[in-house]
UniProtKB/TrEMBL annotation:
Pfam families: DHHC
The protein's name: Palmitoyltransferase
GO CC terms of this entry: endoplasmic reticulum; Golgi apparatus
Annotated membrane topology: Multi-pass membrane protein
Similarity section: Belongs to the DHHC palmitoyltransferase family.
Intracellular or extracellular location(s): Golgi apparatus, trans-Golgi network membrane
Broadest EC class assigned to this enzyme: transferase
Domain Palmitoyltransferase DHHC: 247-376
Length: 428
């Protein structure tokens, strides 16, 4: 009801860049962010009178604050997600603390990935959406570039060509990221799915649709390609039963549609994604059929830029040592605050690069075996795939057609999907 009223309000008199529709459905202005907050007044009143607070009054005040925290936008002021902010404040502070002394450096650079991992598992368990990781990833990239310009360049050891290569790397990473954010390729309901809402039920909880997607799909195809062994009528009946069974198993109760083979439902995005690989918190989006290639490209551009940047920084702050030795032992680096900060950032970048390099290796192996991250996880859980080299390689054997054919399929997938025009707000 409120939504419809807001729509009418917007159509009658469009919002200016500083106006917005607040959480109660009323029209508000950014300049009025401190006015007329009954919840805050009530909480202050109770605090002054030393009366106990209402149990939900603080959460109502927090909801009002987050609702009023906005930035001007063309079609009305946009809400700022609070999870964007901590990385912007914490990262520079922590890196500067770590640059004070090597012992502080060890503590901060050990605690920082630990805290990020803890927050990752915390949000992942709650299946909540957060912009914290995207903010941390983007800000880390841009902050490292800023420090390269302001701290490393003035030392005079980096040529303009080397700066140009680093700048090109940052730009290419951002372009590939924008492309990845265009979307993973969502499953669209077909007219046949309308019938499915009445007929089919959700699959049993102990059976995962992803694995059966693959095997069932193959059984149906096998039926179609062996006419000599079966008569026309039984074959049609068997095919129809199997297809119905397959549809029942591939039915998504959340999106109310039948998933095509290899599609999966993402509980964080709340949508079914074609050839779902995984939900990546660092880009705040799923990786699927439409954006898997650009996701890999983003990783590759980032890693190349980062490795080259680290090597330039270490050569500048520790010219007497070889690159690997410099990262472990660099005498007198803490004698100057500038060189200490550069060295700390080289270490921070190395930790991030190490994590992403591991992810890239896993992704390249998965593509070589034509397995998605989701299928590999399910095969491990159900013990249906071959696990090689301590679980680094998971071969389900369902879709693999050989190394070359798998890569050809990967590089050509997504060609048929409709490209989506990207709005600036889609980046988050
Ligand atoms: Zn779904
Ligand atoms: Zn997702």
């Amino acid at each position: 009801m409120k939504k419809r009223a807001n729509k009418a309000l917007e159509l009658d008199d469009p919002l200016c860049c500083c106006e917005y529709v607040d959480r109660h459905g009323g029209r508000s202005h950014m300049a009025a962010c401190c006015c007329d907050c009954e919840d805050l007044d009530e909480a202050c009143d109770r605090w002054m009178k030393r009366e106990p607070q209402n149990p939900d009054s603080l959460s109502r005040v927090a909801a009002t604050v987050t609702d009023r925290l906005r930035v001007p936008w063309i079609s009305g002021a946009k809400k700022v997600d609070l999870s964007l902010i901590p990385p912007l404040i914490l990262l520079p502070i922590l890196l500067h603390i770590a640059a004070l002394h090597y012992l502080l450096g060890i503590i901060v650079l050990t605690a920082l990935p630990g805290m990020v991992l803890w927050y990752y598992y915390f949000t992942h368990r709650k299946k909540g959406r957060t912009l914290f990781f995207l903010s941390l990833a983007l800000f880390s990239l841009l902050y490292m570039y800023y420090l390269f310009l302001t701290e490393v360049m003035p030392r005079g050891d980096v040529t303009n060509l080397q700066l140009g290569i680093i700048t090109l790397g940052v730009v290419l990473t951002l372009i590939a990221l924008v492309h990845t954010k265009k979307g993973p390729g969502y499953v669209r309901p077909s007219p046949a799915d309308t019938h499915s809402t009445v007929t089919y039920h959700s699959p049993p909880p102990d059976v995962d649709s992803a694995y059966h997607n693959g095997s069932r799909h193959q059984v149906v195809i096998a039926n179609r390609t062996s006419p000599a062994e079966q008569g026309a009528e039984p074959r049609a009946v068997a095919g129809s039963v199997l297809e119905k069974d397959s549809s029942r198993r591939n039915w998504c109760p959340f999106c109310k549609l039948v998933q095509p083979p290899r599609a999966g439902h993402c509980r964080i995005c709340g949508a079914c994604v074609l050839r779902l690989d995984h939900h990546c918190v660092w880009i705040n989006s799923c990786v699927g059929q439409a954006n898997h290639r650009s996701f890999l490209l983003t990783l590759i551009f980032f890693l190349l830029t980062s490795l080259y940047g680290i090597s330039l920084v270490l050569r500048s702050v520790c010219p007497t040592q070889s690159l690997l030795t410099a990262l472990l032992y660099c005498p007198d680096v803490y004698s100057q605050s500038s060189s200490a900060l550069c060295f700390t950032c080289a270490w921070y970048s190395s930790i991030v690069t190490g994590g992403l390099l591991h992810l890239l290796v896993l992704q390249l192996i998965n593509v070589s075996y034509n397995v998605t991250e989701r299928e590999a996880r399910i095969a491990l859980r159900d013990k249906t795939g071959r696990s090689l080299i301590w679980g680094l390689i998971i071969d389900t054997g369902v879709y693999s057609h050989g190394f070359r054919a798998n890569w050809t399929e990967f590089l050509n997938m997504g060609e048929t999907l409709e490209p989506k025009a990207l709005k600036p707000t889609d980046l988050v």
